Amino acid sequence: PRPATVTTVDALVVGAGLAGLYMLHRLRGLGLDTVVVEAGDGVGGTWYWNRYPGARCDVESLEYSYSFSTELEQEWEWTEKYPTQPEILRYVEHVADRFGLRDGVRLSTSVTAAHWDDARGRWHVTTDAGDAYDAEQLVMATGCLSMAKTPEVPGTDSFAGRTFHTGHWPHEKVDFTGRRVAVIGTGSSGIQTIPMIAEEAAELTVFQRTPNFSMPASNRPLDPADQAERKRTYREHRQAARTSGFGVPVEAATQSALEVSDAERDARYEAAWGVNLVGLLSSYTDTIVDRAANDTAAEFVRRKIRETVTDPQVAETLSPRDHPFGTKRPCLDTNYYATYNRDHVHLVDLKATPLAEITPRGVRTSEREYEVDDLVFATGFDAMTGALLAIDVVGRDGATLRERWADGPTTNLGLQVAGFPNLWMITGPGSPSVLSNMMVSIEQHVDFVADCLAYAHDRGETVVESTPEAETEWTEHVRVVGEATLYPQANSWYMGSNVPGKPRRFMAYIGGVGAYREHCDDLAARGYPGFAFSTPRAVPAP
Ligand code: NA7
Prior knowledge:
Structural class: alpha/beta
Radius of gyration: 23 Å
Family: Belongs to the FAD-binding monooxygenase family.
Number of helices: 16
Keywords: FAD, Flavoprotein, Monooxygenase, NADP, Oxidoreductase
Protein name: NAD(P)/FAD-dependent oxidoreductase
Cofactor: FAD
Bound molecules: ligand NA7
EC number: 1.14.13.-
């Protein structure tokens, strides 16, 4: 049935996370009547949903923050080097209030379908709340890690105790005191939450499929003097982030890891250890392109694990051997490896004894059943494409996004898909976002989209669409750059390989946020080659 109410807007944004809120701010700045629909009952996106104990950003707070407002960045005071989830959520809510964004957000509403009306040049968008929108522009700010996934084993619904997913954590505090807890998954979420749950639980059993590389966060309270000093030079620092590879300023490497002595290399790795997420990866020019060079960094981390974990067998099980360092997102932790030295913490190697099923009483591997009271899935997300393909997106001539992407996502700049006019993705597949400080990528994408729309509207055009040639060219460029690295060697969510049946394809752009921005700026300066501007055939009746 057709919904009773259809709201006409200039732009509809899907998702009120850090991307959607800034998009709303920019579109309003252009005078466009804009609504954001958001599935959660609050703003914040990732930082609204991921409330598990220990949830924290792995990029420093002074860098993982908006740069578009000097007043905001000068006035907001961060308390720690790495911000916790509650602190980031407070920041997002502050931004929503400060820029008057809340009245543009419809909460507790999920977009279910979006159909392009080619004659009118508009999107017809329906939601699960039973309402609909008629929008000229449709911006997907749906996030890269927003579709939580649970293991593909029988019985996940049969467990009689409490079940949690890190990406859908309850709002009220969960108390694990005195309980037997299972955690499945050792990605960033698992590695952050395991030491915290171990503090409370009577028994903690961790089910690990693939060990990950983790480095100490070395988190600490921010010294007010240091914060003030950073803010004094914020412009320069932001600029350095924007022109960097990963969106975090680091000194560019000049040497191969293989052309220096073992002692010199160790000293360099030691200096980068515990400094930030990207230092170790950025120490040498060839760490992500040459397996032998990469092995030196991988072995450095494995040595740290052996030095920390007292049981040599546990240390070996925790040591990644299958994938090169950095090709799955490395983690930052607080006491992760040391947690396995505690008597009540146990590690189960699912490579040796695979997960067979979830039972009413707990977890069964090929070897035995583990009885627990609570089950925590830290099993990640259907990344990058999951949230987009959950929506029935139908473009020109009845083409669906699901069919177009059946063999993996193809995009122009990660922003548009040919045949889907006026549909924009913020941090879409083919953009550098997931390999970067998200805030740097989000601001760049949002600014590009807003500037492009201003350019179109100034010329009286209301339809913007990537050309098929530009999409093919960009997708090929993303592939070539990716295949020159070690990233495709890992079974990572960047590759889609954490979701059975998903096409295996490196979905991120590893050319760096600096190079990407330069390319986008150049396109904008040249009138957006690769994008076609037009007016709809039938101008809607007034
Ligand atoms: P991740 O990084 O995708 O980690 C998920 C973990 O769950 C990972 O260890 C997976 O093992 C494991 N997993 C997933 N499915 C299964 C099944 N079926 N059986 C056993 N184990 C499984 O998600 P996170 O939430 O930790 O982090 C997501 C991103 O957020 C992170 O990369 C940062 O960018 C921030 P696998 O490695 O697939 O063998």
